[in-house]
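Internal tracking record. Fields below are filled automatically when a chain is submitted to the structure queue. Please do not edit lines marked as system-generated. If the sequence contains nonstandard residues, flag them in the REMARKS field before resubmitting.
Queue: standard
Priority: normal
Entity type: single polypeptide chain
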Amino acid sequence: MSYLVATFYRFVDLPDYREKQPEILDFCQKKAIKGTILLAREGINATIAGTPEAIAEVLAFLRSDRRLADLEHKESRCERIPFGRLKVRLKKEIVTLGQPSANPNEKAGTRVPPREWNQLIRDPDTIVIDTRNQYEVAIGTFAGAIEPRTRHFREFPEFIEQHRDEFRCKKIAMFCTGGIRCEKASSFLLDQGFEEVYQLHGGILRYLAEVPPEESLWRGECFVFDERVAIDHHLQVGHYQMCPACGHPIDERDKASPKYREGRSCPHCYQESEG
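SYSTEM-GENERATED OUTPUT FOLLOWS
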């Protein structure tokens, strides 16, 4: 059986998010859904998996709330459900930046469709920023993109502060896996006085789904937050695995390293594990 993985988010005012948790949990459990759904006052963020029929029913259930009627999602398929269980969690933020003034419900950057993304990032006056964390960027990114080298998204404002003068008069184009981080990052930049701020609509996942490989400026694979670890340009499971010691994606080259010890360490955490 082929299962469906659906990724979606929506920034929208949900003052009753605590009350919504048990009803969403109950509905998903009845449909044998696995994955993670985050709820906060600022909206919803999720990656879930199940049969195509079950996913369709869950999305219809969520969209029955008029505030989520235009909820967009991205899809990919896999041969087994890449989650062990279902979690519906309450959070302060659906993606943690730690900047209360960054509110996509009030302002956000210009959304750029995947088919127009290549033209934007080829412009020499455009600064292209990968808003994901270092371990994600390590296995794939867009050609020419700047890597902030963050360990956590909440470190992103510090990166911007360090490069404020360099970026000030440029067009800034940002991207992430599904669109949520660059949407919040774009709100933060606008609040900081940056004027031309763009974001890849639907993130890398939509880009890989809509832009043919022969036209693509994507290099490598895309890290995903489930047991698949990474997907390729055809949205198929990639060739990376996850180090059980540190969670960093590893491939056969990493396994060939003398610093790789199965179940104990990989080249990315060897020194820490030995210490």
